[in-house]
Amino acid sequence: MMRQDLAACYGQERLPRYTSYPTAPHFSTAIGADGYAEWLKAIPAHATASLYLHVPFCRAMCWYCGCHTSVAHRDEPIAVYEAALRCEIDLVSRQIDRRLKVNHIHFGGGTPTIMAPEAFTDLIGSIRHAFFVLPSAEIAIEIDPRTLNAPMIDALALGGVNRASLGVQSFDPVVQRAINRVQSFEETAAATNGLRRAGIAGISFDLIYGLPHQTLASCLDTVRRSVELRPDRFSVFGYAHVPSFKKHQRMINEAWLPDSLERLDQSNAISNALIEAGYVQIGLDHFARPDDEMAVALRQGRLHRNFQGYTTDASDVLLGFGASAIGHLPQGYVQNEVHTLAYSEAIAAGRLATAKGYALTDDDRLRGEIIERIMCEFGADLGEICARHGSVPEQMLLSSPRLQDLICDGIVEVDGASLALADDSRFLVRSVAAAFDAHLDGSRHLHSRAV
Length: 451
Known about the structure:
The protein has 16 helices and 21 strands. The protein is α/β, with parallel strands linked by helices. The strands form 6 sheets. A 9-stranded mixed sheet has the order 10-11-9-8-7-6-5-2-14, with helices on both faces. It has a 3-stranded antiparallel sheet with strand order 15-16-17, with helices on one face.
């Protein structure tokens, strides 16, 4: 099939981004606070951890947003929530019989920098008191350049932040008005330069394609202007339009959205422009300078994928803090209460805020590793992976009718027990990963289009 035919055939499917396996729609209340407490107590002595802290507040709602967040016009709810985060850190750490080593910390949102600078400093202090943050740890934070100020930049630097991810999305003013996010190039440049002056050298930009009224020309103009600011990484995501799940997305008229072929053209144009500018493509949607740690990890086969996307984080344990935050332990996944009030009430009562989770089976672990390697490397050595899990590759290769269709259509090439995506079909990597997803059928409507 031609690339356009493949996009038309497979691109309309709604599929996960596979930042976990199984994905969050399959979590259930069978795993709660008591189960999480037992899992925490059983963390292996040699384990290292990464921490994710969710701050579910913004000053205004971007209509494309798919995150768990709400608009905060006052500072008091944010301060109360930050205090709850510090209490949760104490609750979780008391379940572990030592100061667990931490090599990655990520503040996500929402807009984490909506916190007062002194509150952020207190939060970092609580983390360092409860955990042993390694000197080499990556400490990253997501930033809305429109609201970043000098006191907050100083607090980030004081707290040891060494990577900042700036939301850019698009510099096209027509697109910005359509998504309720008007952000000038000058605001973005001021935030980038301010962070660098404070010693925060790791700068990442987030871009989105498939937005309302977006064109090839506006995508390329956004890339051109972004590259002028020399970020060392880019994340380039396709807009996921799920208005039944995110009601504010109903403010976006579906007639304004590009179709699958237009989205593919936009994605390809952005990718090609970034590669021409000297960046290396990392998996499906990340780009990095050749000397960046993420590009090095790709070359050395050390790239991983988690809820923050592609990462160099090889931690055994991910601990999630805050409303809706997800954690990953050897036994499985846990997720906190999604709603801020329910989360805060649980923490105030001295309880872990775990609302649901998922206990992994041996089959989940096998499939999860295959899916991660496909998402990271556009292929997988099933023989090697299956051997580690006491399985046989033939069973995985022959048991999926979907995989056979992908092979017949020339999307996947098989050599013995190894499979790889054809070079011109890599944009369908989520479709290939889905061939190994035993849980997919019950959750398709909650995911974004494959292209």
